[in-house]
Amino acid sequence: MTGQVHSPASDSTEAGPKAFEAVCTVKSNDLANDAYRLLVLDAPRHILKCQPGQFFHLLCPVTDQHQPYLRRPMSIYSFDEEVGELAFLYKVEGEGTKAMATLTPGDSFNVLGPLGVGYSIKPDWNNLLLVARGVGLATLAPLAQEAARLGRKLTAICSARSEAALLSTEHFRRLGTEVISVTDEDGSSSVDNLRRLIEARIAEEGVDAFYTCGSNRLLKLLQELGKKHNIPGEIALEQQMACGLGMCQCCVRPFRKGDDIVQLRVCKEGPVFDLQEAMGW
Amino acid sequence: MVDLSVSVGSLTLKNPIMPASGTFSEDLSDVLDLNRLGALVAKTITRELRSGNPTPRVCEVRGSMLNSIGIPSKGVDYFLQNTVPFFHEYDTPFVASISAGTADEFAELCEQVSVPGVSAIEVNISCPNIEEDGKAFAMRPSTTLSVMEKLRGATDLPLWAKLTPNTGEIIEVAQAAEHGGADALVVANTLLSMAIDVRTRKPKLGNLMGGLSGPALKPITLRMTYQCAKAANIPVIGCGGITTLNDVLEYLIAGASAVQVGTATFINPTAMTALVDQLTTYMEEEGLADLSSIIGSVRDGEAADSQFLEATS
Fold first, then answer.
1. Residue B127 annotated among the catalytic residues of the structure
2. A15 part of a folded domain
3. Contacts of residue B217 in chain A, CB cutoff 8 Å?
4. pTM for the full predicted model
5. 3-state helix, strand, coil in chain B (%, to 5)
6. Residue A37 · residue A105 · CB < 8 Å
7. Residue B259 phi, psi (nearest 5)
């Protein structure tokens, strides 16, 4: 049961990545902390030509207690074409993720992807700075994988409620990322402190590009700093989806294009967009 | 060799499976071979540009979904310059879908899309989102008749009237559409519905209300398909909640000449070609050469039939 799906990203890379519907096998689905789980799948290699920031559309299992109906879009946490492995880090929160939490090793799991347009790393971007919070860090983890592959320096400012709630920092470090942790607990995650941290980083080593996702507060801050220092950036955004392929027009968000405001589909034109074109919410 | 072909008026389709408008676009062309489908039905367009409804535009309910997309449209020029040529590459009949706020605008757009490459025009006289509180032409026989007459005068192409389940007069509306000049009836669009988030107490759709689709809708639209097939003398295309081969067969037995598959494609992007395969296998196993012995074969009996129609009129 494998279908080839048109990928909107196919124009932007030489290999022409494709999307597929495929049945994977659950390798593990363990707690990452009290609220998050890491789902690791044994996946066919042909579905693993992924770009950082792309997502899969997941067919969550129907159980006695949970009956999710539509697929759930979820950003890729990690992928390994060599090993044939695909992973998702998710917060157990709604009907879909509660159903996903019941998956056990050996279970089948139907995924559709990789979908959407991911993050880009331009040839002359050497010092990359990512700023993300909570589960948003999962979305940005493949960027660290790609930065390492390309030999670029990546700094990750990881924000969370508390030190204990910080996710993925070890994963980032293993990929060679310099990690700066900030928390609500000690007040270091405030916008003012983040601004100071980022300004210092710009002054000391320079920053060629910003990467973020999910948070309105971080979007505003990075837009401000990006404008001030003329630093480009990209943001991954979320929206409820139905088809995930661009057909149903359900997942639109507004973007600034020159003097116009246009509605773009998160599944097809996104989920990664230009930082300055994105609009707060 | 099983023959799955069906006739919808003057059009012959290679099989009875086609997408429902709004759940299909060029984007599906790489997941499945569009030439394997019976027809290709475009998303509804309006003449002017429309941005659509506020988000959230969909939500799920148990085993089904609600949507209130609001017909975002790139307008008729985009459609003629891009969409029609794209589908012209396939040897499957391409069906335009149009909507408008007034009968005159409707007729004007109908004329504009009557171009080579368009095999039929589905007239969405039923979309529950486009007018306030879901009012639509196809809610009443009188407004159905008048808009269909205007549309009939605007084109020589086959006209498929897409009816709404949001009416208490489905039989009268079906007959009005036929008298107004429809070549086929598509039964039906989504059913106006609502869902509320108990925690926030907000409606789950940005537009407050929206159309129910998916398996929960099927028994209702199947009933209406049956009623319309009985009451009208033009072909009926069944639509609503079709997910499995059994669903397809039910609609055909109820009297549908063909069916449209919508929400199922969101769950499984290859749902339509899977249904074509399953229908082929079924016919082989049953030893049936073509669909003529299935379509309209419901064993309802005279007495039950008259009682049923009475009970609902």
1. yes
2. no
3. none
4. 0.91
5. 40, 20, 40
6. no
7. -135, 155
Residues A57 and A145 grouped into a single domain: no
Number of domains in chain A: 2
Nearest chain B residue to A59 by CA distance is B267
Q: What is the mean pLDDT of each run of 10 residues along chain B (313 residues)?
A: 95 98 92 94 94 94 94 94 96 96 93 98 78 72 94 98 96 98 98 96 96 97 98 98 98 98 96 98 97 96 60 53
Which chain A residue has its CA at the smallest distance from B215's CA? A69
Residues of A in contact with B270 (CB under 8 A): 1, 3, 21
Domains defined for chain B, CATH in brackets: 6-312 (3.20.20.70)
In a domain, A84, yes or no: yes
Report, in this order, helix, strand and coil percent for chain A, each rounded to 5.
Answer: 20, 35, 45
Q: List chain B residues with CB under 8 Å of A72.
A: none
CB neighbours of residue B35 within 10 Å: 11
User: Which tokens hold the place of B74?
Assistant: 């790139």
Q: Which parts of B are annotated binding residues for substrate?
A: 43, 67-71, 124, 189-190
Give the structural domain span for A28. 20-115
Return binding residues of B: 21, 43-44, 67-71, 124, 162, 189-190, 214, 240-241, 262-263
Q: Is the same domain home to A252 and A147? A: yes
Judge if A135 and A79 occupy the same domain.
Answer: no
**Is A171 found in the same domain as A98?**
no
The Cα of A248 is separated from the nearest Cα of chain B by a number of Å equal to 6
